[in-house]
Inverse folding.
């Protein structure tokens, strides 16, 4: 079953772009939350991680801070 | 253990360009890098890379990467070189993941942000303290922030923030800002900036997130309430692993006109070197030069 993937990002952050590109390349559907324009999403991200760095990737509740390709692969089982 | 023709350390403009040339020369090579794009990936708008009248840093890096990867080189991402040593005719490398051997090495590991070295800096990193205004700036909408530094990168960060943040303090430890006059004027015209000259940061304060900075202005200490701290006090070369390789007083690797270091077979290119001027296009050009020198070295020594 497909996992629920959320990406907390800003449009200007290069690692966010790379993380999203990586997900697309692997045909993983995800919800993109732009924390610069969406204060609720920003608060949600800060509450989940206790920090403000982007990207944050939430894979079925597993929180990955930064574009950590290996951890993302493991969490997605790809 | 396998001996490569070449190992390129770093995948910024210098390393990637060296990689493109190496692939076209059909060398047996490997690229080891912590990230892709280096500082170029963090750059905002680029208007001086020939062929592109306007391109953003991430877009240019994407193009660099596509160019190199079309040749299918071996790329080890997220890997950091810890030690490098010439032994006989090979260079031995130790990373955080494996050991390698190569006939030649091009060090193109670039530069990273200089740290403040004050209390609270490590603790509040990504909790309000950041080294990348381009990346994290949008998170500080309507907040009060401090930019630390007085050079072009600090002024550039401040200008990115004037449209986002509420109040911007520029904390500069000299008598006046040192960046370009045109940036000064834009900062002054913005209306929501305050420049604190002769001031340095003593500590970053907060609980879970940043709540302020303690600064010292000519022996007078005060606390500024800010939710964001942007550290823009220059760069240091990523050359710690290059022990035994001659460096200048700024720890930049010294290279000759052929990108040769003081150790034969070890070349260096881009911002990690003492080459004058740090620009994407210069780093890219230096990367190609270093590769051509490494290639000559390989054929001269019949490797």
């Amino acid at each position: 079953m497909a996992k629920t993937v959320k990406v907390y990002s800003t449009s200007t952050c290069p690692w966010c772009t790379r993380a999203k590109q990586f997900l697309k390349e692997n045909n993983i559907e995800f919800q993109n939350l732009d924390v610069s324009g969406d204060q609720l999403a920003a608060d949600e991200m800060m509450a989940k991680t206790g920090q403000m760095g982007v990207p944050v990737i939430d894979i079925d509740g597993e929180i990955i801070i930064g574009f950590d390709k290996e951890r993302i692969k493991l969490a997605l089982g790809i | 253990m396998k001996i490569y023709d070449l190992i390129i350390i770093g995948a910024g403009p210098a390393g990637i360009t060296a990689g493109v040339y190496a692939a076209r020369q059909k060398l047996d090579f490997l690229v080891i890098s912590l990230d892709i794009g280096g500082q170029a990936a963090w750059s905002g708008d680029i208007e001086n890379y020939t062929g592109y009248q306007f391109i953003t840093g991430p877009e240019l890096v994407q193009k660099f990467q596509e160019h190199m990867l079309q040749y299918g080189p071996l790329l080890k991402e997220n890997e950091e070189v810890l030690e490098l040593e010439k032994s006989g005719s090979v260079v031995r490398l130790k990373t955080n993941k494996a050991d390698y051997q190569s006939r030649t090495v091009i060090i193109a590991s670039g530069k990273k942000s200089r740290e403040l070295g004050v209390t609270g800096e490590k603790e509040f990193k990504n909790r309000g303290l950041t080294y990348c205004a381009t990346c994290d700036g949008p998170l500080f909408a309507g907040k009060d922030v401090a930019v630390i530094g007085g050079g072009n990168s600090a002024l550039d960060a401040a200008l990115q923030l004037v449209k986002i943040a509420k109040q911007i303090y520029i904390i500069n430890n000299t008598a006046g800002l040192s960046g370009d006059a045109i940036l000064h004027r834009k900062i002054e015209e913005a209306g929501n900036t305050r420049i604190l000259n002769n001031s340095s940061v003593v500590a970053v304060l907060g609980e879970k997130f940043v709540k302020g900075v303690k600064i010292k202005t000519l022996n007078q200490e005060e606390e500024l309430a800010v939710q964001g701290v942007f550290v823009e006090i220059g760069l240091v070369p990523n050359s710690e692993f290059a022990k035994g390789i001659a460096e200048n007083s700024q720890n930049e690797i010294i290279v000759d006109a052929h990108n040769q270091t003081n150790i034969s077979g070890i070349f260096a290119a881009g911002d990690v070197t003492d080459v004058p001027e740090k620009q994407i296009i210069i780093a890219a050009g230096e990367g190609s030069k270093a590769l051509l020198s490494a290639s000559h070295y390989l054929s001269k020594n019949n490797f």
Notes: The longest strand of chain B covers residues 99-107.
